[in-house]
Specification:
CATH architecture of the domain at 114-230 in chain A: 2-Layer Sandwich
Largest sheet of chain A: 7 strands, antiparallel
Shape of chain A: globular
Strand content of chain A: 15-25%
Oligomer: homodimer
Low-confidence stretches of chain A: 1-6
Number of strands of chain A: 18
Mean pLDDT of chain A: 94
Chain lengths: ~475, ~475
């Protein structure tokens, strides 16, 4: 594994490829009111949750209502070799949605139908604009649920495109494990299907998993078939405070090594707890804390919780505080999910630069504690949250967007976090994707040969480089 | 989903691409005694467990001992545009190993080292010639195990290349879910790495899962990092006989729909039981039978088993017969794994044509019972085994290899099984791969557009078509 050789891409390379009037006219004629050039609409589709602020918006936005709409929009853009950027709720943290080479944004939020619930097969097929909360609302009566939960109420299209995960992945896997099949519109404007509703298959190349995590650079996802799970008979959630991050992390490491099938195990640091307390009017102990959830039969949940409580006690953990009712649990996980926004609001006007490394579980303490020490020494306000059961954690550096100095120092911290993760056998991104930000890190992690192979695939499938260009690979 | 339009490839298309003397000389000079042209060696490397019998053997065999050996062998073949076929134990059922376009077989069985056991991370890194049984022997002292079990003691390289699964997949997933990272030698003779030891990653295209299941057509796998699991605290295995296949299958469907985390649930039909009884000198009831295994804490195992026994009783299942000691369990699973060979031996001199469809679990009874009725009506001896928890089952038609009539009738049965599976939303191959046999079915299943995309990727990564050519795609 090479050590990182370059900083993250702090300033995206902007290479405008203008949308010619003939394309704009054709889009107007084909899409009528479903196409907009209004500056407010373009600006809304020209940003996301990343810290990049200086990229011009796309030339226009198509509000797709069907796969055919997507095919026609892509085909028109392909004729003119103009970029296409799929857009959902805009919750990317890595600049995926920014029009660094200009082009047309395809808004998929009107494609928000749950197309088929096959409860007896534990599968569901949705359009890409369905969000994870919407899906779980719509299938509530089936006794099933979709577990992947990245925090934001992201679309399932966006979650597929970035190979998202979040809380629950420690038990149920990520989008990689839970997408069974896709419909995709290619760079040529053709619709293809990958996969079937069978749980497993050896039928040819795994195009499904090639598109999962391809960040819009190979095609536009227009339909997704997902695995569902029976709602567990019993669910218990608990929080546990620790005197130090090390104690909390070591509790998690041992829990995973013992094979306890814990459904969620999230770490938030004292900074995050403080922000959450302020934001959500709570009075949690402002110490490092694990938030946990156990799924199973009543007996199994009890057994799991007792095992973890015992491990926690060995590491100076407090007694578990339980959240047993659905309402209490919702409050708990809402507080956890609000940690990001609570922390960002704790420094008015700031932008957040977020790290996303993931390491083998035994190296988690090494990776995390050194990162915390460096952040403490830097003086930059930060918070830490982590899907620690997977070895994945996020440092959020809260910077003044107008301060080049803070940005550079935060990026240097990020660089150190990534370098350490790679040296420990980990990855620069556990779940957010490469986007604009980690293109250098990707080369450091995967090596020039593997990245060259990715580029070869990209060039073969999208020879005019119109599908979300400038992401994953520089240029 | 289209209905299948063509029969399976019964007779492989043979297009010899001769290995020029200059290549043979270069291989001799580079590899010395590690290269063989002996006819017995070539013939051994020119066949597998498939029913194809008429393909000439490869021109020579390289016994690779290192990644560098593989790189050099591939680079020499690439210079001469001569095919390369990776070879493990030869347990393919689909003709993957046959030299339909001539070329050089690369035997990987000397690359049989377990390179790194990272017990504290639940990962292991192995060379491709390590077999699954060898791996589990070597890690016995760690308290961990590798669950994927396709029956044959296949190599982990071959299992990765075919996206294998087998018993245990219902609980632990397939090679798709359990390969974390690979080292691969490309068609250009370069070694690249895909993935890391982190449990999850969003770092660029998922090359790991592109190579898993690529059947040697994109590169040669030279190193594999796998997930391991803690040995369950308690294991119980049981068999249960049923008056009909329908009763057994409906028991499985309900078990899966309820979310019981059963570790293994295998169906064998009365024909298989009869063959196993003869082969293994057992006296099992010659009725359809489920073989089950439960993993977990003692309490959880008891709970799971009670739930399934209750479901089985509702479907006329007999009382469970338990296999509680490790020795009894080994005997039980050995009998299950011997079902294939026992059945083949029940008709001396026969070859076996095996189906491998997998359907959504609610359609399993439809898919399976009609297939059994057709086989009964055909008069061709057959047996049925199934990883039914995944919706995957195998009909094995035992044909006289010299009888074109039997072969044609068996292929017609196979065709009907596949057509039905595709119509029910399933796949033509759950775990064996496409190989020479299912190239037509792949087009029926995935559609021309998706197969064209697979070919585009193949051509981009292997422009001279030297990596195991003639498999997955015709020509």
């Amino acid at each position: 594994m090479n050590a990182p050789t370059q900083l993250a891409h702090v300033t995206p390379e902007i290479r405008q490829r203008p949308a010619p009037p003939a394309l704009i006219d054709a889009l107007k004629s084909r899409f009528g009111a479903q196409f907009s050039e209004a500056m407010a609409v373009r600006e809304q589709h020209g940003r996301d949750e990343s810290a990049f602020t200086t990229v011009p918006p796309p030339a226009g936005v198509v509000f797709a209502e069907s796969t055919q709409d997507v095919q026609d929009a892509v085909a028109l853009c392909a004729q003119h070799k103009v970029p296409v950027i799929p857009y959902g709720v805009g919750s990317s943290l890595e600049g995926h949605l920014l029009a660094v080479q200009g082009g047309i944004s395809i808004d998929l939020m009107r494609m928000n139908q749950v197309l088929a619930v096959n409860a007896e097969d534990l599968t569901v097929t949705v359009q890409p604009g369905v969000t994870r909360k919407q899906l779980n609302d719509e299938i509530k009566s089936t006794g099933l649920f979709f577990p992947i939960d990245p925090g934001a109420d992201a679309t399932l299209g966006g979650m597929s495109a970035t190979r998202a995960s979040g809380t629950n992945a420690v038990r149920y896997g990520t989008m990689r494990e839970n997408v069974l099949a896709l419909e995709v519109v290619t760079a040529q404007g053709e619709a293809i299907r990958t996969g079937t509703r069978a749980r497993k298959s050896s039928a040819g190349y795994d195009l499904t998993r090639l598109f999962v995590g391809s960040e819009g650079t190979l095609g536009v996802i227009t339909e997704i078939t997902l695995r569902l799970y029976p709602l567990p008979e019993a669910v218990s959630a608990a929080i546990c405070s620790f005197p130090s991050i090390a104690d909390a992390v070591n509790t998690v490491i041992q829990t995973i090594q013992l094979g306890v099938p814990i459904a969620r195990v999230e770490l938030i640091d004292a900074n995050s707890v403080r922000a959450v307390n302020q934001h959500s009017k709570l009075s949690l102990r402002e110490e490092p804390m694990l938030l946990m959830e156990f799924h199973g039969s009543p007996a199994s949940v009890k057994e799991q919780a007792e095992t973890v409580q015992e491990i926690a006690r060995d590491h100076q953990g407090a007694d578990f505080e339980w959240a047993d009712t659905p309402e209490e649990r919702t409050r708990l996980w809402t507080a956890r999910h609000n940690a990001y926004f609570a922390a960002v609001q704790s420094r008015p006007g700031c932008r957040c630069i977020t790290t996303d490394t993931c390491v083998p579980i035994s190296r988690l303490a090494d990776a995390l504690l050194d990162s915390v020490a460096e952040a403490d020494a830097s003086g930059i306000p930060y918070f830490l949250v982590g899907h620690v059961g997977d070895g994945n954690f996020h440092m959020g550096y809260l910077i003044d967007p107008d301060s080049d100095d803070e940005r550079t120092r935060a990026e240097r911290l990020n660089h150190q976090v990534v370098a350490r993760a790679l040296a420990l056998g980990g990855t620069c991104t556990g779940e957010h994707g490469v986007g604009l930000h980690k293109m250098g890190f990707l080369v450091d992690e995967a090596g020039a040969g593997a990245v060259a192979m990715m580029r070869t695939i990209k060039q073969a499938l999208d020879p005019d480089n119109i599908m979300n260009p400038g992401k994953v690979f520089a240029v």
